[in-house]
Structures are given as structure tokens and as C-alpha cells.
Amino acid sequence: MRYTLRIHQDNQEYTAHCEAGQTLAQALELAGFAQEQPCGGRGACGKCRVRASGGIEPPDDKEKALLKDALQHGTRLSCRAKITGDCTVSL
User: Are 1 and 19 in contact (CB under 8 A)?
Assistant: First the structure.
């Protein structure tokens, strides 16, 4: 299933299409917004933090452990957050 990904960066909004089950990192890379991922996307370093909302799976245990209170403010790890519907990401 295809969904819309809205990307906010430097006071501009971009729109891309993404697939259910992709991580935000995968969708962002395909849209031309690759992020630094020193841990290889294993959710260990926290370098791929984004603010995200909308159709995204709840955080897994790795995300919860690394992000703690930041989750309450919409912060997610793009390498761990999987898309389930239309969503918005701020870089």
C-alpha cells in the first residue's frame, strides 16, 4: 500500500510516496533525504532522530530505551520507525 510522506526541512515542505512496512529512514533515503546512521540502522546510536507523526508503528523496546522522554515529544529513530499510513517527518 502506498502512503504520503510529508517532509519538513529548512522551513520547506516536500512530499514523497512510501510503502507500508518501510522504515522512515528507507523512505527518506528514497526521497533524497539520506541521514547519517553510524550504527547501520540497528537503533543503537540515535543519530537518525526525527520528529514524526501520523501513521507510524509504536516504538519498539530499542527505541524506548534510547529515546526515553523524547518519545513524548514526537521524536523517533528513523531507522526503527515503520510506516503504517500517511505521515509527517521534520528533519
Answer: yes
